[in-house]
Amino acid sequence: MDVVNEPDPQNRRGRPRLRSDEVILAAALQAFAEAGFQAMSVRALSASLGLSHEAVGQRFGSKLDLFHATIDFGMTQLYASLEVAESEPSLPADDLALLRASLRNFMIGAATHPELGRIINQESLTPSARLDFIVSRAVEPGVRPLADLLSRLADEGRIRRTTAREIFFLAQAGAAPFTMVGLSSAFDNVDGPFHAEGHIEQVADLIVGGLTIRHTSAG
Question: CA angle 191-197-202, nearest 5°?
């Protein structure tokens, strides 16, 4: 594991303070989420980690390079936390159950890694090379399998025909309370305290239930 070695000014013996790549990238993820790309300061990030002004740049390159590394780090952490892959036998064999599980996992990811979601929301406002990078790393890998799944279900007459875009943004809306915490909390006086797990299950049921075609027997 790579580390950045910097002398600790508070340590009179000069024992080096170690900052692993993971620690730096986790801090960068938080910084980009809070400030946005333009306002985020690499110098301030270095200082918050107790490193010299040049330390992060020497390790990761330009601010854009650091952004790219941060997105990749965030996605790696997300997939690790979900511990779900299509090859795992624990995934539902039924396509409709698989769709629900996919929606649920998407929202669990938003709940456990809200910083990544905030960055994606910020960058999604206008086209840019940064957004293209995010799409290639965080969106495209899941879009084609989702589109294929929706197509299979529609061809079988099990759901209304819909698009990957429609389902993606419905799921994004479901995940909004985890990235828009301040606005979500404004509903506490109406709905009571927010319960993340119940919210995830309810939204997944609403989306799948709204898509499902109910067949009635003739006669």
Answer: 65
